[in-house]
């Protein structure tokens, strides 16, 4: 991707190594009149929550592409409010040259009631990519039914180098298996539900960690959250929330669980909460 830009004569602005600084970032956007950005939701959140976003001119931005993880709706709305209609979502992975589906600028909206808001969607299949939702037995599912996102097309790799076993598993039935669970709506939009391995099974019920995280994230004291399944003597598994609070905010685990019970089916609510600073990689 970098070389394509160079071939077309488009300058690249690269941040130097070290701690990520939103003010340095916005200063560079203003100085170099940056028009296109590619980043991850955690970095977008840091950029639009930092006060420097209002002190630098970023009107040159045409596209801010975000990928790599689901973006919480509250973060998406703030980004749209601060930056305007420049947000573009990619959904994919390395095996498909980065993109299975995309959600262009016009498929975003600040207002939850706007039909273009497409809350929870990861967009529509990219050009040249055939996407379908299958169950475990490779039966193609109807719109609205939860199954695995599978795809095929010229952008999909042919397999894993020197690993025929992994290739056979990932390309069962002639389709590449993403490992992600989703539903496809009648209009072709794909709504991501969870990673297959991240589904929490409690008392025979499937719980989406993303759904629980989205609810917890709406609490005004919560900065970040991650939900996982932990062993439970009675139910097999139960949700546990790891939470980072906003600066100068206080919240108990009991209060957060009660908040969840007001906004979720009770069986989906965390049974325990741990307040920590969530670890991150250098890219967020």
Task: Spell out the key features of this protein.
about 280 residues; GMP Synthetase, Chain A, domain 3; four-stranded antiparallel beta sheet; 14 strands; about 25% strand
CATH architecture annotation name of the domain at 2-91: 3-Layer(aba) Sandwich
Main β-sheet, spatial strand arrangement: 1-2-3-4-5
Q: Considering DSSP H and I runs of 4 or more, what fraction of the residues is helical?
A: 10-25%
* Individual helix count: 7
Helix/sheet category: alpha+beta
Structural shape: globular
Largest sheet: 5 strands, mixed
Q: Quick one: CATH class of the domain at 2-91?
A: Alpha Beta
At CATH level 3, the topology of the domain at 2-91 is Rossmann fold
Beta strand %: 25-35%
Low-confidence stretches: none
| Rg over alpha carbons | 20 Å
The chain-level mean pLDDT equals 90
Span of the ends, CA to CA: 20 Å
Number of strands: 14
Element-by-element helix/strand order: HHEHEHEEEEEHEEEEHEEHE
């Amino acid at each position: 991707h970098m070389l394509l830009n160079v071939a077309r004569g488009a300058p690249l602005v690269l941040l130097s190594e070290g701690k990520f600084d939103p003010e340095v970032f916005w200063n560079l956007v203003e100085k170099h009149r940056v028009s296109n950005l590619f980043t991850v939701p955690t970095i977008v959140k840091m950029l639009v929550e930092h006060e420097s976003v209002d002190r630098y001119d970023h009107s040159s931005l045409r596209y801010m592409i975000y990928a790599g993880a689901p973006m919480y709706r509250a973060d998406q709305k703030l980004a749209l409010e601060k930056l305007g209609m420049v947000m573009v979502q990619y959904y994919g992975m390395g095996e498909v040259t980065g993109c299975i589906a995309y959600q262009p600028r016009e498929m975003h909206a600040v207002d939850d009631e706007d039909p273009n808001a497409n809350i929870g969607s990861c967009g529509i299949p990219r050009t040249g990519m055939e996407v379908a939702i299958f169950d475990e037995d490779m039966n193609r599912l109807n719109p609205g039914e939860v199954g695995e996102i599978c795809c095929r097309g010229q952008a999909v790799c042919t397999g894993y180098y020197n690993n025929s076993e992994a290739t056979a598993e990932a390309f069962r039935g002639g389709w590449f298996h993403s490992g992600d669970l989703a539903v496809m709506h009648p209009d072709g939009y794909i709504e991501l539900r969870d990673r297959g391995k991240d589904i929490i099974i409690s008392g025979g019920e499937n719980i989406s960690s993303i759904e629980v995280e989205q609810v917890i994230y709406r609490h005004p004291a919560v900065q970040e959250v991650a939900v996982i399944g932990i062993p439970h003597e009675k139910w097999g598994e139960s949700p546990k929330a790891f939470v980072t609070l906003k600066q100068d905010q206080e919240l108990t685990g009991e209060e957060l669980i009660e908040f969840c019970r007001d906004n979720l089916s009770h069986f989906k609510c965390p049974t325990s909460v741990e307040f920590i600073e969530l670890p991150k990689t250098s890219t967020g």
